[in-house]
From TrEMBL:
Protein name: DUF3263 domain-containing protein
Source organism phylogeny: Bacteria, Bacillati, Actinomycetota, Actinomycetes, Mycobacteriales
InterPro entries per UniProt: DUF3263
């Protein structure tokens, strides 16, 4: 696992209890929340985080899936439509 992967995992486990900390993802990692949760979900499903216990891994997969399933904010949808 890379240092960035470890930072994303630590961030997600710390902030997931508070809704995810979406407003801090872009400044912290330079990626949008959707990209962050997709990468984290991929990590949780792969063998990259074998050192994370099963309960945490399962929780993160569920959390990421729920974040990715939510509708996009209106301003983000409008920005995509303008492109």
């Amino acid at each position: 696992m890379t240092r960035d992967d470890q930072a994303m995992l630590a961030f997600a486990t710390r902030w997931s209890r508070f809704g995810g900390g979406d407003e801090y993802i872009l400044p912290e990692f330079g990626i949008t929340p959707d990209v962050f949760y997709q990468r984290l979900l991929t990590m949780a499903k792969s063998t990259l985080i074998n050192d994370v216990d099963f309960a945490t891994r399962t929780y993160l997969m569920d959390f990421c899936a729920s974040k990715l399933a939510r509708p996009a904010p209106k301003n983000a949808a409008a920005a995509r439509a303008a492109v």
